[in-house]
Amino acid sequence: MSSDERIARYLDRVCVHLCWPPYRARVRRELADHILTRAEYLQNERGYEWDEAVAQAVCLLGDPDALGRSLRQAHCPLRHIGCLFATCLLWAGIAACAVYLLLHLPF
Known about the structure:
mainly alpha; rod-shaped
């Protein structure tokens, strides 16, 4: 398996756990950059061959499924969307109460 295929397979296994496309793309870019940077270091500083350096860099990241699940738990956009929705409902309720009081209080 070539180094590009090895990286792509690893990234695919990590990203299958991530449900939000913009987050998935960002994680994929960052992990690919991390793998390539580590592989370059291993090649230049430690004398590894490129394919061996990529394999070692991927191995050092650990299990892709565990990493994907951890990343999903660390950044769940649904939780943020839920908090935003609850905040909007709260402010809408406050605004509705203010309008009600303004319309029904005698001046």
